[in-house]
Design a protein that fits this description.
Strand order of the largest sheet: 3-4-2-1-9-12-11
Number of strands: 13
Number of helices: 4
Number of domains: 2
Low-confidence stretches: 1-22
Radius of gyration: 18 Å
Structural class: alpha+beta
Distance between the termini: 41 Å
Mean pLDDT: 83
Largest sheet: 7 strands, mixed
Strand content: 25-35%
Helix content: 25-40%
Shape: globular
Length: 196
């Protein structure tokens, strides 16, 4: 019995590593579509959509998602899948799909949006020129004045997203709505989130 538990834990650990996104964020309580960035840079997307009055079945949706991911992987994946489809279920007339992406580039290519996970030194001049507000105090901060800039990571996107980051958000461009220490909503247009 003890060996069986150890084997199951080992298999689950390998599956999480292969998926590219392990996270300590509780995804079971999410009610809206959200993109999650792990400390390791893995990307997980929880897609949640109203499904009650849909003109197609949940089985049709499942087949579509799996086929789309398979086609994308055939075109973009090297040795491991760029996208892995996780749990799909229908709850309270909502469809919920969990997908993991090998990295931000896979997420960006799949959705056809700009989405970059970098360090602060990788920010473009346009991104550096934005007005930044600290999460804790709401004060304006100049990105170039951050003394420990090598400790900051950055998410850069041009799309409206609910975004959870496994880490502490320090500051964001002023067009980002901060919901809590690791959850923001971005808007269409260049948005930057700096976190540790």
């Amino acid at each position: 019995m003890k060996h069986k538990k150890v084997l199951i834990l080992m298999i689950m650990s390998v599956m999480l590593l292969l998926n590219g996104c392990t996270t300590r964020i509780n995804i079971s309580k999410l009610n809206d579509s959200t993109v999650i960035v792990s400390k390791e840079g893995g990307i997980m997307e929880i897609g949640i959509e109203e499904f009650g009055d849909s003109h197609y079945s949940f089985d049709d949706l499942s087949a579509f998602v799996n086929d789309t991911a398979k086609e994308f992987n055939e075109r973009h994946a090297d040795s491991r899948p760029a996208i892995t489809v996780g749990t799909m279920k229908e709850v309270d007339e909502k469809a919920r799909v969990e997908m993991t992406y090998a990295d931000a580039k896979a997420y960006e290519a799949f959705h056809g949006i700009s989405f970059m996970n970098t360090d602060i030194l990788g920010l473009s001049e346009e991104a550096r020129a934005l007005t930044y507000i600290t999460r804790d105090t709401g004060e304006e901060v100049d990105v170039s004045s951050l003394t420990d800039s090598d400790k900051y990571k950055a998410i850069v996107t041009d799309s409206s997203l609910s975004l959870m980051i496994e880490g502490k958000i320090e500051c964001c461009s002023d067009n980002v709505e901060v919901l809590d220490k690791n959850h923001v909503k971005t808007t269409d247009g260049l948005s930057v989130i700096l976190y540790k």
